[in-house]
Amino acid sequence: MDKNFQEEEFTEIIKFTPPLHKQRHQFVKDLVEKHKPKKVADLGCADCSLLRMLKFCSCIEVLAGLDICASVMKEKMHTLSPLPVDYLQPSERSLTVTLHHGSVAHKDPCMLGFDLVTCIELIEHLEESELKKFPEVVFGFMAPSIVVISTPNSEFNPLLSRVMLYRHPDHKFEWNQAQFQSWALETARCYDYSVEFTGVGHPPTGMEKVGFCTQIGVFVRKYAQTGASLQSEKPTEAVYKTVFKTVYPSLKDEKYLQNAVISEVIFTAQIIKHRFMSKREEYGDDPERKSKSQTSMDCFSEYLRKPVVEKNMEPFVSGNEVYIPLATIFSFPKVNRLCGTFEKLCKLISGKVTLSSDGSAVMFNIEHENEEN
Ligand code: SAH
């Protein structure tokens, strides 16, 4: 038996594992992982379940959904909002998620500039007049580098239980493989795309001719499109209504980057200070013992994957203060990666972290620590 479905009474009930709708979404996710599009639009996004899955793909920076039914989109759109953890640990990439109310039969400039457009189980819901306009809107106007279209394969229907005419009462048609392929090939030819056919939901062994339960066409644009031609050459009035928009906290945003850098600098300085103070306590000022202490400090730093070697990078005590040089803190991989340059580190923490008078070291008062000890 095929691995992705179980059957009970061959022509009665075929249960796909995982369920077919999940296989369709997984197909899109795999395609995203492979091609790494930055901007993805899901047409006929319904309850936004595909968008919810795609927001975890780290290559995506812009996600948009479109549906003619605002209420179905609104039902679960709040689940696309950032979670508290997204604010606590902002991601390195930026992510904006927008939902629009409108029809794929109409052009709107907000749909320009996408790399991947997905139309999962959408076309069979379109009226004849809408289906006629659909290729010009998606392939002519939006013209992304990749379009994925999935639709039921009517040849599979006799293998499904309870399918009378169509799989869903709102379906306006269901095509067999030849019908879908001829429509897709003609569309691809008209708009200079190539198309490959595949699907999800394997037919039972011995019935391969029936084809996949869901047939899928993956269209790839043959010509290169320049960024400049996107907006300027396609003046169109906005007709869609934006019903939801959320911008995820990102380290690309200076405000979140600054918070992250300040926390990381204080955290790193505390670690260095703690280690330095305990070694100092252990070995006092004995030069021989101190050199052992330094070796140990190096090992500790090595553990954090960046040895502290330079003399002027060593922490030091003066009066009631301990000083942790910024150069040492900057040598730690996470601080280094967050800031990029030493100058940026100085700029981001300026006025936010207590520094030595020359600004070269983070300063901690250890008066009370001494008292405690
Ligand atoms: N893509 C979804 C389910 C699609 S069901 C998934 O993968 O689970 C089809 C959706 O297309 C419905 O939500 C319906 O409201 C929407 N739809 C139908 N006609 C449309 C049109 N002309 N423009 C945009 N969306 C449309």
From TrEMBL:
Keywords: Magnesium, Metal-binding, Methyltransferase, RNA-binding, RNA-mediated gene silencing, S-adenosyl-L-methionine, Transferase. GO terms for biological process: piRNA processing; RNA methylation; siRNA processing. InterPro entries: Hen1 (IPR026610), SAM-dependent_MTases_sf (IPR029063). GO terms for molecular function: metal ion binding; RNA binding; small RNA 2'-O-methyltransferase activity. Gene3D superfamilies: Vaccinia Virus protein VP39. GO terms for cellular component: cytoplasm; nucleus. Its cofactor is Mg(2+). Belongs to the methyltransferase superfamily. HEN1 family. This is Small RNA 2'-O-methyltransferase. The lineage of its organism: Eukaryota, Metazoa, Chordata, Craniata, Vertebrata. It catalyses: small RNA 3'-end nucleotide + S-adenosyl-L-methionine = small RNA 3'-end 2'-O-methylnucleotide + S-adenosyl-L-homocysteine + H(+). It is an enzyme of class 2 (transferase). Signal peptide: none annotated. Its EC number is 2.1.1.386. SUPFAM superfamilies: S-adenosyl-L-methionine-dependent methyltransferases (SSF53335).
